[in-house]
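The step that takes the researchers longest sounds almost clerical: writing a folded protein down as plain text. The outcome of that step, for a single protein, is printed below.
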Amino acid sequence: MALTEVYWDHHIPLPKLSPVQAKVTVAVVALLCFINSYDGEFVFDDSEAIINNKDLKPATPLSNIWRNDFWGTNLSSNSSHKSYRPLTVLTFRLNYLIAGGLHPVGFHVLNIILHAVISVLMIDVFAILIGGLDYDEKGWILNHAPKTSLLAAILFAAHPVHTESVAGVVGRADLLCALFFQLSFLTYCKAFNKGCDRDETFSVYWVVVSLMLCAAAMLCKEQGITVLGVNAAFDVLLICNVNVYELGHRLLFRKNPPDIREVLRMGLLKRLGLMSLGGLSMFYARWRIMGTGPPAFTEVDNPASFEENIFIRIVNYNYYYSLNAWLLLCPWWLCFDWSMGCVPLIKSATDWRVVWLLLLWSVLIGLINQALCSPDSQRRRTLTLGLVLLVVPFLPACNIFFRVGFVIAERVLYLSSAGYCLLLAYSIGHCSHRWIKYKKLTCVMLLALLSMHVVRCALRSHQWRSEQSLFSSALSVCPLNAKVHYNVGKNLADGGNTSAAVKYYREAVRLHPNYVHAMNNLGNILKEKNELTEAEELLSKAVSVQPDFAAAWMNLGIVQNSLRKFEAAEQSYWNAIRYRRKYPDCYYNLGRLYADLNRHVDALNAWRNATMLKPDHSLAWNNMVILLDNTGNLGQAELIGREALKLLPNDHTIMFSLANVLGKLQKYKESESFFLHALRINPKAASCHGNLAVLYHRWGKLELAKKHYELSLKLDPEAPGTRDNYNMLRRKLDQLKHSAP
């Protein structure tokens, strides 16, 4: 296992620390980089994975997390993303239970702690990969490369590309996957601790435990399965000390056939067989869970994968790899989303960007050459295992085995960055060894690099604190990304600044003319601004591009209703319901259309459907009470109102409508009770004061009527009818005063 001291290690420009000091240092660096994200909001994908995910709620059966995907959608559904991460969702649920609700601080703090723990464990991982596997009498790992492993761990702890995984709550999947990945690797190493089982070359028990931890990593994120590849490479290269280049050369030219008896005696085939069996079992289980079908992605998610020309497709894939490598080398230009035109496709070999993928492969071939052919065994081992740790965890995201749903995703580099940090630490050590006279310069450059990384982490994690800062930061990085403009516009619209949002929605549609969600949201804003003709055009185009876009059909129906195109509006509503059968808001709007057309029975049926699908649909309940009241069906209106209040006991609008009905039924005392209850909930409701005054007026409680008329007029001087009723009451009071003896 080559347990000699690593010759370049003492040249690393870092102090030699004790194991405890080294781990504390790495933990402090990790916390320092990302601590300012602890009180951030839920941002971007957090809304779907956390806020809108019913699997986090205590009322949802715990068994649901084993049947649903990461976003709370049933895995059998066609709309499922097929991302099966039940252990990650379980930690979200625990966060929810501990905090007593959706309070983001607890979610963020746990992410930061996980990153610190992972960074500390990286010291042991790097120590084994660089200096070999060795244990002391107590079973603790001996570090033969203390400075190099410390430097690599610090570089990992402070790498800015990790910000998405740490500062974004959904990055929990990457963090937990990395944690179990490390534990799986370290327990696999434990199998070779002679103190555990002196009669065997390795412990089957620890190999099985490693496989179980690999399964746990896979239940946090699919990438976890790649630890088996790292374990296998570690076994071949470090445990069995196989020289891959020499072995390949002998097999290829059939000269001096290698003696594999020693390797067989060490149990390599048995271990590889166990890992293969475990890996295949996990793959089969995952395939069955997915419903034996991959997730469906669209061209905007990953345009290169839809390119028919295989040469162009391969060129673009390799360009994506070069961009990922650039993010590791220079993590200054970071973006929450790299799709929708952010990275334009390379269409021909004459595109100047081809230079980047040629440069990438030149560097990789150079590293592979050194890893295989260098006469220095320590260099061969370090470079080979560094490349394995860089490449193997990235394989699920490389589009080779299956299509992925993104162009570039910074979060998938979380594990691969460990391989990069190992290679960078080796390079710094090698340069320090070769150029001893420039030691001070090397020290200054290293300090500058670490300082820039820490500052960049702090700046980037601050941008992840809110959606406004996150989305705005992407405008300068990916100005051609329609999704960036869409998200900036949506954030502005959610904040009430619809005028500013229009500009960004229009730019999103300009950059991506078939961006249906941008057209839908822009159409909604124009509808509110009463620019109905353009709104109709946008929404009509949206449903023509995506005929099953139920929300756009409903919004189109609302616009057509406003334009008095009643037949077209009715058809649009029914199209929306056809594509989304459980659509209470659409039934509500359909009921409003029928009410406008005086089709009262149809309106009541539509609103009843809305309340059946969504029992707390306040507007549908209230409209039923009002319609029955207006059509003289006071008894039925009372029944509906009472039924609604059983489900919504604190809804002041329904109380108000029911109080009006009871007043007309001359149930004055009960009507008064509902009016007063509604006013306790919403004391500034002018209409409620006004109608209560009318009730008192009819009831003969004139002083109380006068009081509430005055309160109503104070809150709303223009309240329709209230001024006339008040004047009528004053005349009556004057008459009573003059007629008194």
User: Anything to note?
Assistant: The chain has a mean pLDDT of 89. The chain has 33 helices and no strands. The longest helix spans residues 104-131. Residues 242 and 368 are 16 Å apart (CA to CA).
